[in-house]
Amino acid sequence: MSIVKQWSLEPSVSVNSVHLPAGDFTTTLLRARTDYGFSPRMFASALFQYSSTDKVFSSNLRFRWEYQPGGELFVVYTDERDTLMPGYPALKNRAFVIKVAVQVLRLRQQLGPLEITLRTATSIEGGRLSLRSSHRQW
Hints:
Layout: E1 2-4, E2 7-20, E3 23-39, E4 42-51, E5 56-68, E6 71-82, E7 90-101, H1 104-111, E8 115-125, E9 128-137
Antiparallel strand pairs: 1-2, 2-3, 3-4, 4-5, 5-6, 6-7, 8-9
């Protein structure tokens, strides 16, 4: 459903009744997706989901900006929480990622050979930051 021209909201519920020789069970998946377009080149989106099968609540927030043709910036936050524990749901997994995409051929033509080292945070768990590095020469 579209709330205003640039904002949409999509709630959904999926209930599955499963019948097996070992036993019967029902699973429920609650989901809400929303998107907001600031402009044709910039948007934010979010997905929130609860699964009754594993009792997990997860969220994913994403921002995308095409700052020039062929160049994009992504900022993504995602987490997963266990709802079986009493109180505020316990954190199972979390990640915060920033990704910058550039059109390398255009840069190489302007600057000559490029040497780039990228470091991205792949996860933050228990207060510890995990980094991933990649090094390329073009």
